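Look over this record before class:
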Amino acid sequence: MSAEQAVRRYYALVDAGDVTGVVDCFAPDATYHRPGYDPMVGHAALTDFYGGERVIADGRHELDELVVDGRRVAVHGRFVGTLKDGSAARVGFADFWVLDDSGRAVTRRSFFDTPAV
């Protein structure tokens, strides 16, 4: 599987609510950096996040651009959906992935398009 296919697969699985599939997109010792959270390291932390801590109830990722450089993938797009409190969400994001040789994420960093300054 190419790096682009691996990353696109992640978004399809997360949008489908497949926690096991999503966590399997990460290497066992992967680190996920997400604003507002301590770094999530390893499958147990990722399962806790995707299985309950995540504030998103449902929705979809709309990908505008993927840039691939070997095993590094940059993604720009938006998330459109509903939060667990029932409010609508539409937020731009950028993700930066580093994958291992099997196409599993070693690191992921997310940034969100929200007013900050």
